[in-house]
Amino acid sequence: MAEDFVLKRGDCLPALEAILQDAEGRGVDLAGATVRLLWRPAGDSSAVVSARTATVTDAAAGAVRVDWQAGDLDTAGAYVAELEADFGGLKLTFPNSRFLKFRVVEDLG
Length: 109
Prior knowledge:
The protein is an all-beta fold. It has strands spanning 5-8, 16-19, 34-41, 50-53, 55-58, 63-66, 77-87, 90-94, 100-105.
């Protein structure tokens, strides 16, 4: 699996930063939206394991940042994720054609 990003087990940095884009590659205006990162182990079709609210850093440009919290990345393995923007009950998922893929690798201590 080619990952979009890799992190070490237990780390909380770097934050995940993304620009949520439409099909033409333009940033989606996130004014008034709340955004969450949802993730689960790759290959597990059960419900989402974890979610973290993103900070909208530039609404007009579609820019968000997810600050990892202690415990978020405690288990090494492959994961799939998506960013979900909620516009007052109307949801739009990014990317909409695939999952983000990331890996949490073992650390030495």
